[in-house]
């Protein structure tokens, strides 16, 4: 039977950002829901009040369902109930509460999604460094400051859905299993901000500091959301120093390297840069296939090779999406009463994703349009040649990507044959300046390519 507590925790860990849910709406409306059972493919959630029930149904239902699909569950709907309605589901609630009772879990372990372990993580070229660094940290956290000078803090960065949270939870699960006496604290920067703000409001700053200073391992996920709020970064800076000097481990993740987090104060930046910085890139096709197979083993599902290949080919940049599509394909086959999805079913199930992508411009569209405009080859624009024409086209494509899309500079560098992010900054600024100076040729090119993209 499905472990709904774990599923709910997993869904909650990804929900911020979906359909406008932010830290506040999460804390007020979603965090207070408790999963009770599943009935007819719908997750039954207990709300603390009827007001909460109405609001969740009206404003957050879609986002919650989306989060549940994202984490690969087959659940398609939610039913929000209040205490008085529990009787209707008494039978199911009993069944589900019995399975949770069977597995009492320790406090530390409860913070972590049990499926996110090192064993379930597929290793490849794109994540090798991050994986090994995380494993090293899990095996000898913090105390190894002297031996592994440079692993503290460990800073992991990479795009959305590439396994950063999975690695943090793997560290947590590993330590909880092997060194249960260690205190591990996992938080997101959103939670940290909330905690800070409410501690300030209730005059509990001492408790705030003590909470974060008394751990052996502190992990902060998605640090790019740290705001420039008075006092917050200062408080974190002092917590960091304390932990570091006491040989405690710090692990951070972000969607970009420390240097590119605009809101980061210099002193924190230099702390973050003092340890090991490991990036995670997009997985190649072989790795995507391996990830699908691992998930199939885990979920005990069978899918033929041609379908596995089709899904892996279609989803090339986000592992969460890859897993979501696998679940969707399997679910479609189930709906049609087939034991195993066929290629046609896969195409049908994923047509939604490809049509959704139409009309949404991505970096490849911009590169292709620029190549068409200047009548040059794609291999040349991302390649090393430096002729005047190619260099100009390349800079314009880079400028347009920075202007139209929110992609970290390092990732743009990767799109252009692994160029350094400083090269990307230079290209962006050069075209920007020429536009401001009214260079007619550049302006025409930028406008024309933008128009081509609109069509
Ligand atoms: P991020 O935090 O980088 O946005 P997550 O850690 O939430 O991404 O990963 C998204 C999903 O992809 C999770 O379900 C995770 O288990 C899965 N995933 C990511 N990387 C791997 C990998 N290398 N092997 C297996 N599963 C992975
Ligand atoms: Mg994450």
Task: Please tell me about this protein's structure.
The structure is a single chain. The chain is α/β, with parallel strands linked by helices. The protein has 4 domains: 4-100, DnaA, N-terminal domain (GMP Synthetase, Chain A, domain 3); 109-280, Rossmann fold, CATH 3.40.50.300; 285-354, Helicase, Ruva Protein, domain 3 (Orthogonal Bundle), CATH 1.10.8.60; 363-454, Chromosomal Replication Initiator Protein Dnaa, Chain: A, CATH 1.10.1750.10. The chain contains 21 helices and 8 strands. A 5-stranded parallel sheet has the order 5-6-7-4-8, sandwiched between helices. Strands 1-2-3 form a 3-stranded mixed sheet. The chain starts with a helix and ends with a helix. Residues 102-106 have low confidence and may be disordered. The structure holds adenosine-5'-diphosphate and magnesium ion.
Largest sheet: 5 strands, parallel
Please state the second-level CATH architecture of the largest domain.
3-Layer(aba) Sandwich
| The top level CATH class name of the largest domain | Alpha Beta
What is the total tally of β strands?
8
Parts with pLDDT < 50 across at least 5 consecutive residues: 102-106
If you average the pLDDT, what whole number results?
89
What proportion strand? 5-15%
Helix content, binned percent:
55-70%
CATH topology tier name of the largest domain? Rossmann fold
